[in-house]
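User: I'm putting together a teaching handout on how sequence relates to shape, and I'd like one worked example. Could you take G protein-coupled receptor 83 from Otolemur garnettii, show the sequence you're using, and then write out its predicted structure as tokens right after it?

Assistant: Happy to. First the sequence, then the structure tokens directly below it.
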Amino acid sequence: VRFVNSTWVFGKGMCHVSRFAQYCSLHVSALTLTAIAVDRHQVIMHPLKPRISMTKGVIYIAVIWTMATFFSLPHAICQKLFTFKYSEDTVRSLCLPDFPEPADLFWKYLDLATFILLYILPLLIISVAYARVAKKLWLCNTIGDVTTEQYLALRRKKKKTIKMLMLVVVLFALCWFPLNCYVLLLSSKVIRTNNALYFAFHWFAMSSTCYNPFIYCWLNENFRVELKALLSMCQRPPKAQEDRPPSPVPSFKVAWTEKSNGRKAPLLANNLVPSSQPQSGKTDLSSVEPTVAMS
């Protein structure tokens, strides 16, 4: 709305909230990717150690959101709604940063700290963690007697895993680099602000979260299995057959013999015909023994 209308229409309160939500979501995304990388590193490098419990997982998520909130508060606080007369009948509002003096220096170091916390440190941790994981997977020798086919299948699986880890790191680095560089250069007053450029870089950075599920589905068999199981839950369950009480009347399995006098003679199960059955082709069910007639 701000880009389309060239003015801020949401008021003073949302000027602070919007800025906080933007930076908080960015930090949460980067920190979550970092936590996932560290967790995978622990699982593969130390497979005999127990996995994190549900309680620890909740604690880690709370820590991530707390850190993201702490890192985002300076950006939310240092915002101000400016109103100016654009023309005789047009008044516009802008939600812009308003840093304390020295404003230029404060803005520069705040964006530099954000660049380090939001991009450099997560990228460094993720790269080191996945590099060690890839090295162990590549150098890991097969234990026990395996056939050539099993060995080749294991090698292909290792290559897919390493390729998946590398793609995640490369995409994170590529998608976030333009936006972070743009913000850093803008705060250093090397370049002038450009809404279209900022919008494009912001969209490109946000799109990084959309690529990972497709990469996992392409290169991770476990992810595909879990995804299929999740999608199967959305299907309509088959209708349960109604429970019917057993019929008190015994059922009979009828077989047909060869034509006799131009008509087919019905026989009971196992082609057994009671001795009292007439030869006219009609079956007298009352004379049949239950042990023979019941199917």
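A couple of points you could highlight for students: The chain has two domains: 2-141+149-233, 255-273+280-293. Residues 264-295 have pLDDT under 50 and may be disordered.
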